Amino acid sequence: MTEYPNITGVWISDDEAGYYLNTTIQPVAIGKNTWIFTSQHGHIAEGYKVFRQPDGTYANQTLVGIFDPDGKSVYMIDQPGGWAKGTIISPDTMFLVLTHTGGKDTGGNAFAMTMTFHRQKSQ
To answer: What is the pTM of this model?
Structure first.
């Protein structure tokens, strides 16, 4: 049986960039994201993410992640329909690729980005 890493906790991304895609490709600043995994049951992790939107307001979106049997890849979907693939680099580092087909959070544009997350140590 596969052992899955425990990813519960608070993960904060580096300040990275992404791209909008409409009739052109436009770079967009992402800023920091906070993803909080509140529970994990075997290969399924649940939580939410908080980030600043382009209009300056903050979004709070639920998400669920499912580990691949390799124990390093985790596939996630968020509340408005964004898809992400995370790769566990170390117990406290995850590289993530996220795509979204477009909606309110992206100004109607399709969107792609990469982020590197670091799990925060409990105080």
So the answer is: 0.88
